[in-house]
Design brief:
- Among the domains are: about 305-460, no CATH class; about 475-675, no CATH class.
- The protein is about 5% helix and about 45% strand.
- The strands form 5 sheets. The chain has a 33-stranded mixed sheet that branches. Strands 18-21-26-28-31-35-38-40-42-45-48-51-54-56-58-61 form a 16-stranded parallel sheet, with no helix packed on it. Strands 2, 3, 4, 6, 9 and 12 form a 6-stranded mixed sheet that branches.
- The relative contact order is 0.04.
Length: about 675
Amino acid sequence: MKQPHRKHLRLARHLTFSFSLLLTIPCAVSQAQVVTPITSSGLNTTVSAPITLPSGQTQFNITGGTRPGGGANLFHSFGDFNVPNNNIANFLNHSGLPTSNILGRVTAGNPSNIFGTIQTTNFGNANLFLINPAGIVFGPNATLNVGGSVTFTTANYLRMTDGALFNARPGPADALLTSAPVAAFGFLGSNPGAITVQGSSLSVTEGAGVSLVGGNIAIQGGTLTAPSGQINLVSVGKPSHSKVGGEVATGGGFAATGFKNLGTISLTQGSTIDTSTSPGTGNPAGPVSIRSGQFVMDSSSLMAVTTTPLSAQAVVGGNIEVTAEHVTLSNASSVSTRTSGGSDFPFPYGSNAAGNITFNAEYFSATDSAIAANVGINAGSGGAVTIQGFKPGDSAKNVSLTNTQVDTSTRFIGVGGPIEIRARDIALNQSTLNTHSAEPLGGRISLLSTDRIESHDSVFTANSFFGSGGPIDFTAGKSIDITNTLVRTRSSSGLNGGNITMSAPRISINGSTLDAQSGGIGHGGTISITGKDYVKLSDSDLSSSNVLNPPFIITNSNADGGNVHIDGGAKFTSEQSTISAGSSIGDGGSIHVEAKKATITDSVLTTAVSGGPQTVGGSITVDAKNVTVKNSQILSTATEGQGGTIEISSHNRRPIANSIIDATSLLGTDGTVTIH
């Protein structure tokens, strides 16, 4: 009898243990399901239980916090801060006190995953700061509903203007928090946390801003929108001194100091950074500021586009500034500060303007991309596009444009914006730089190189329809190589052609056109080419002529040819090329060639005129110790007027072979030809 009793006892104990285990399992599952994604870690921060809204969303109200001296800063501390999909993290001002800044930190060491909505309620236009050194990720459904500007950072602390610190870790400094504004973001670790935007659409209200300040920043198919506000992206790396750390200032363009290197910002998969005007507001677009070690755009856009009513005046578009050691644009990426809409026609034509675009980089590469600071249907001037060194005003090491368009033109009354590239090496391939204007002046194009400039199959235009062409300047420390390229600063129907200047020890112009013509009542422009070792022309056309179109012919107009001046230094050669400074109704211009040795083969130099009896052919001078003219024509002829002057100075006995040197007039007085 005792043995069965023992069996029953063991069975009872086994059943009791099994039943206890079954009770424990559901309890554990239930606890996992109610884990709060947002937890408090001090500073009197309170997080409510989940609230189910009529929309089906789950909301967590965040209240309490610490308000030093009852001031305008409200500080919160979170252990974890995550916002799951279909959830709302709602910062609620239950006290109703005026607030300028809401500042929250995340202390548990886990990244924040933002897949739902971050919201502020009853805070008016207070700004929101969220600090998490472990990293921040925005998912595809992440959104913002905040009254003021937002800043997300992986900094280790915030420094206030009075020196107080808001550390990402709780500590004695919490007792010293103040109501002063934020002055800087401080980073201490060697690997700052990353910020990732994965397909999110993050937007703020009109005039507010969005700032991301952290380690590497990756925007993958995401959109940041701040209508007429400001967007700042700053990526930092390892501080120069780990004990001191590095800081990013909130003012002065978010300058980063004290870092050994900066991080990477990438915009990919059709991402957009946008501070453009909201429809119907009439406000100008806001600025975009980007600072990093590397900045990569792939099939993405930076936009600060201003669109205003036609009656708007003195409208200036937003500026875009990118500062990074390496900048890469590719695959139909675009950067635009375009302005359109406002008009104060007819004058002053300069009060409206597109914004400026500035790249400060050591290495800049753009492929299959577009950069536009142009003006649409309104009176105004184009913005400036500048590509220069990492430090503003310095030269970059290398700038490369391939199948890329840079446009600072204006389609109505206004000056085309200037385009300036400063670098050791500048290379353009199948690219276009355009600063066209209707009136009064084409913009300025400047390529300034300490080493070499190369242009292949590219176009440079600074034309003006009714006004004068703008200046185009190529200056290089070693060489300029222009192949199959059009350089044009023409006045189509208005005033004077512009000026084209090229200066380098070695200059080669192959299969290209330099056009400073006037098609209006003004004179042709000036083409000035200065070399030291050589200037070579091959199968090219240089023209500063006036080619006045018949509908615009005006008697006694100043429609003269312009000037072409070539100093080849040691050597000048022209093969199968044309140099012209003639005029259809005015006087001819001048062509001056000088070098130690000049060889002109199968080429034409002409300052001929075809106007009335009052016109005079221009002057042509070839001055060299050794001149060879073979199978060529040098012409300063006239139709009804007077022939011009041709002077060739050379030490060799027979400088001319199988060539035509002609300064005669068909109906008027012949000019003079002098060969020394």
